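hey so i finaly got around to running the thing on Transcobalamin-like C-terminal domain-containing protein from Enterococcus asini ATCC 700915. pasting the sequence first so u can double check i didnt mess up the copy paste, my clipboard has been acting weird all day
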Amino acid sequence: MKRLTVTILALLTVFLAACSSHQTDKATEKVTPLKIETQLPADGVIKKEQMATIVGKKATYRFTGEQEQIRYTWFYPGQQVQNPVTQHLRVTFTDKKLEDIKKQANNAQEALQLHIEKMELAGTPQLAITLPTKWSVDQAFLVRKIKGKLKQVKGSEVSLEQGKTTTLKFRVLESDVDYYLVAGNSQKEASSSESQSSGAPTTATSESATTETENPAAPDEATTADSATGTLATTELAGDKDAAEQEAAGNPSVTNNQSQVVPGEKSESKGNSEADKETTPNKEATVTFSISAKTILNNWDQLKKEKQPFVPKDGWILAPTKVPLKAGDSVYDLLVRATRDAGIQMEASWTPMYDAYYIEGINQLYEFDCGGLSGWMFQVNGWFPNYGTSKYTDLHDGDVIQMAYTCDLGHDLGAN
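ok and heres what it spat out for the 3d tokens, dont ask me to read them lol
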């Protein structure tokens, strides 16, 4: 019996030692830092631990994949990655059965459907898609279906690079969504070509049809189609002043705040969104900053009675305003400056756990003042960062920043 006990104890000791060794090896296992360019694995997954290796880096990291002979590359600015999360970067494409999409997009010449998998975006990456052939077009739009109607994805203008093949590049602001890239030739170019061939200027005749928007107050853009030329064109309907301000601020009351009626304003076919922000050397850099409590207007019954006097009738605590941008500024710095200059109350507290400031209240409106899911969020160019305002420093001239009060954990603002 004694010999059996000794044997069992010996085996148990060996087993525990092996477990301890395995745990130690696992704990000390190092993650290989991401390189500037990474070929995506078959599942397209870049793990949280891998993303952590590029946090705050002053470089843009590229992740490349391929499907159906279509090559795609994600561009992630390291400075925007502050709270690393696993990224699901596999993109799937189809160009089949898209005739109806082309028709809805004013008889677009080309169309491509793509699906971005569900994830929490770790930044505002750009996605470049290189086709195996060349599209003979001079403009393209990123659109998606909302309530059966095509709408342009706001804040995701598409740049075109033409060579032997076509490359389309745009910013990605949401995931778990089916997008469509639709492309054609601009009205101006088509009219010019017709004028040269006929010897006289021609005017495209079109039939305007208004489409429903997610927010009736926002300015609509009615789609127009020229069946003779297959060109893309827009007709902008008049909107009120408040609607225009909502447009400039990212329109917080729109349920899906990245979307507008297709096709939207004409985008330049050369360059990209970053190049568009370039300024003359002596021009002072500015951003458009606003503070909105519009969601409270739709949840008035949940608002604490003593807080009612602090909600403006139109919901704007600070309407879209140009604010100077200084080197090294964070969104928090701009918030402090904007509220100070406008005489608006603001309270924040430092949170050591997140190494960032937490915005407690603005204009006497605090967390939980309008329900258990209420509080302040911020967005930059339509994207809701998953970290604090004081950690967001990747700012550029022309950026649009909005502090917005949510009554539903951001869902009422369009955040995923």
